[in-house]
Input
Amino acid sequence: MSALLELQNISVSIGSAQLLDGVSLRLERGQTLGLVGESGSGKSLTAMAAMGLLPLIGGHVSDGSVRFDGQDLASLNDTQRRALRGRRIGFVTQNPMTALDPVQRIGAQIDVVSRLHLGLTKQAARARTIDLLTQLRIPEAQAVAEAWPHQLSGGMKQRIVIAMALTGDPELIIADEPTTALDVTVQAQIIQILAGLVREKGVALLLITHDMGVVAQICDRVAVLYAGRLAEEGPVAPIFAAPQHPYTTALINCIPQEGMARGTLRGIPGAVPSARQYPSGCRFHPRCTRATADCAALTPPLITRGDGQAACLHLPEVAL
Ligand code: SF4
Ligand code: MG
Output
């Protein structure tokens, strides 16, 4: 059976800038794939490509293909793509404020999505809204449906956005840094809600994050992007036990350890280069502790390691 979502060797360009270069990803039904990397690595762009939304930002897939349930997105027309996004793919944004209309009550905003995608009557749509809110363990669902967005906390607003993403009963949820705008205490709740949807409803989750700790907690596989290219991809357990790519190692080392003094959060020295100034050879070479002279000259190919793959000229000798 084909994967639910499959990106085959895609390159994405906006104008003359090539922002993604030969990225391949596979997400099976009911699985969770973590897509990680620092800001500017191309994570959101990958999500937009998966939803066929690149034209919105003036971008396009210049090479490769995006398939959902075996169907090439490029073969669909706008109406078909919209239907796919509303019904079979649900999207959870980074900032719940931008996803909610401030001048409409919560219930009405969710109702309208069910009416549009499922063709429900007004009453049936409201019943579904209350049911979704209840499924997301929102207390007093009736009262919340009557509330205005500004009356709700950030965490509650993000639950509403998740409810909206669920209205079409999607097979895939794409969540782009869904906890970034939230207080630390609510972040874990939102992650648990998403993990619960995978467990209880069998949806697949593409979770975009820069937090390797979250990936370790809830993902089956992880894909690491750096400067528009795939650095490493594979099942979570072996990658955390023995990361093959130096960038993966660096990201794992950024996870705050218990007992670490506050404020000693480790970062990776240097920054992700901009698409206009990608370094030659391996794009990670200016920041890499393992780099040698050939790293600036040669582009590392993806090499299979165990059930995963990594793109580095100097992979550890021992395979997984
Ligand atoms: Fe580092 Fe070289 Fe491997 Fe790139 S190819 S990750 S610079 S060792
Ligand atoms: Mg982003």
